[in-house]
Give the backbone structure.
Amino acid sequence: MGFKCGIVGLPNVGKSTLFNALTQTAAAQAENYPFCTIEPNVGDVAVPDERLPRIAEIAKSAEVIPTRINFVDIAGLVSGASKGEGLGNQFLAHIREVDAIAYVLRCFEDDDITHVDGRIDPAADADTVETELMLADLESLENRLPALEKKAKGNDKEAKKLIELIEQCLGLLREGKPARLADVSVEDQSAFRSLNLLTSKPVLYVCNVDEGSAASGNTFSQVVQKRAESEGAVSVVISAKIEAELSQLEDDERLEYLRDIGLDEPGLNRLIRAGYDLLGLITYFTAGPKEARAWTVTQGTKAPQAAGVIHTDFEHGFIRAETISIDDYFACNGEAGAKDAGKLRLEGKEYVVQDGDVMHFRFAT
């Protein structure tokens, strides 16, 4: 698994330009008028990880397979979208299944690009987007209640629990607060997730700045950063225009272009890393002559469940995991050297996978 990220925002904030750049496709139109994106676009990109090609070189792997991230680009939302204004409401359902939602906010001034509300105010834009998502959640929950209440009268325990969670969320939403602020116990997390609420998703604020502000941000992005910090969310500064130009260049040209404008890496790398941090994701590796491959799991995942990401049979028949830390793998020049140096460990069912582990699973068929 990688992770799936929904991209939302007002019209003309650079969503589709960013989507095109990130996926290096022209699947989404990017024109200077509202609602140019008239159906959800889904893009799949490799997660950049400089460790993977190095592992492949050491293991002499014939193929290198990175883990993936899935972006879903939704038509621009406007005030009233939850009630059918604009086109965004038609596609809100497409982001109910994502792991996180990126709010793309306009943090640049440009007289040639019209803002739907006639002003540049990223905080107000974020409020508009959040409000529409909250209103959509409010309607969804209110529509579910009658059927659940009927089941609860028949002493359905699951229905009763869902009603408790729904009532807590409705209280928050009616106060203008997102559902992610709900106080949900560990044992109720699964039931809470089943509600599929838009405002229960972790939020990643993407500040789309002008080219000159790509390295350090600007006053607009600073406002967003403070908002994110106050909410326990994450913000990333990125220039969709620069990313669009980078996506058209070859690797060597891309590195030179980045150096010329004072950047160490593309915005895509920062965006993915921020998403991984937000969701508590880590990467482990498998390596051999056939392929070197990256796999994504959540922090705290134990070895059998990590094996299950590759194939369910690996989890069900799990025996042990031959494990080498990434530092030891590099220091010992691969598996054979690590084994000779006593750095290859045999880990059991309770082992918690660490970021960068190079693993080989033994399982019974």
In short: Confidence is low (pLDDT under 50) at residues 25-38, 84-88. The first helix runs from residue 15 to 23. The radius of gyration is 23 Å. Residues 119 and 179 are 29 Å apart (CA to CA).
